[in-house]
Design a protein that fits this description.
single chain; 2 domains; four-stranded antiparallel sheet; 28% strand; four-stranded mixed sheet; alpha+beta
């Protein structure tokens, strides 16, 4: 039986995650607290792993209620760590600390109602199965399951299903969304998520895995299940499901049903 095995939030876009047992789905479709904060440069562009590899050198931990973040840079012992209340209206001290780390001005942005999703047409949680992540780990000897989780940064992990089960949750054409439920909450699968350079790097060190994208694309194509709409893959560097979602609550252990 398909069930929700893990909920993973990323309170600060591009930084470390936190696992939670339950999460609210906001009216926007976003999970509450997920990518609610973001770092931007002086031009308003996101400071993330796609553009700035130094992001991988930051470590973030959060209090149980997600109201406090402690940020450190293990490779920069001179900086120490900084503790920030996320319910504050001012992030001057955090921004000054980040300015010193990145060596350019950084600003904190906050959007508590919708967060900062990569796919603004499908701002709901990203979905993947545990078996999918395990399969990908097998393609790259030396990568653990958790390492693969950190590379692909999905929100909701489905257990009790085969690898690439989530590929059944988008239609053969754009706009042909597929409805499914996690517990009583309804979501709509829109498309397989197009990946960026981030999964090719170790999430902690930023070290590049040689030929990661090439190997991934070859194996993804070979492994495409018969239930997947192959026409939605203009290339095979796609993984996990982008969604829209209705307001509700999701809990670890919830049954996942289609239709």
């Amino acid at each position: 039986m398909a069930e929700l095995a893990r909920i993973r939030l990323y309170p600060f876009k591009a930084l470390d995650p936190v696992d939670v047992p339950v999460a609210d789905v906001l009216p926007s479709g976003a999970l509450k607290h997920d990518r609610a904060f973001a770092l931007v440069d002086a031009d308003g562009k996101f400071v993330n792993g796609k553009r700035i590899p130094a992001v991988h050198g930051l470590r973030a931990t959060f209090s149980d209620d997600l109201s406090v973040m402690t940020l450190s840079a293990p490779q920069r012992g001179d900086l120490g760590s900084i503790r920030t209340r996320l319910d504050s209206t001012s992030f001057t001290a955090l921004e000054a600390w980040l300015d010193e780390y990145f060596e350019f001005p950084v600003h904190v942005q906050h959007n508590p109602t919708g967060g900062f999703p990569d796919d603004t047409d499908a701002p709901g949680p990203t979905v993947i199965s545990t078996a999918t992540l395990e399969t990908i780990a097998s393609w790259f000897p030396g990568l653990s399951l958790e390492n693969v989780r950190l590379r692909f940064r999905a929100n909701l992990e489905i257990g009790g299903v085969p690898a690439f089960w989530e590929d059944r949750l988008f239609g053969a054409e754009k706009g042909a969304d597929v409805a499914f439920h996690i517990g009583a909450t309804r979501l709509f699968g829109t498309n397989p998520c197009q990946r960026c350079i981030v999964p090719t790097r170790d999430a902690s060190s930023g070290e590049q895995w040689p030929a990661f994208q090439k190997v991934f694309m070859e194996r993804r194509k070979e492994s495409l299940p018969p239930w997947a709409a192959a026409g939605r893959f203009n290339h095979f560097y796609r993984l996990a499901l982008n969604t829209r979602a209705e307001a509700g609550v999701v809990r670890v252990g919830d049954t996942v049903t289609t239709g």
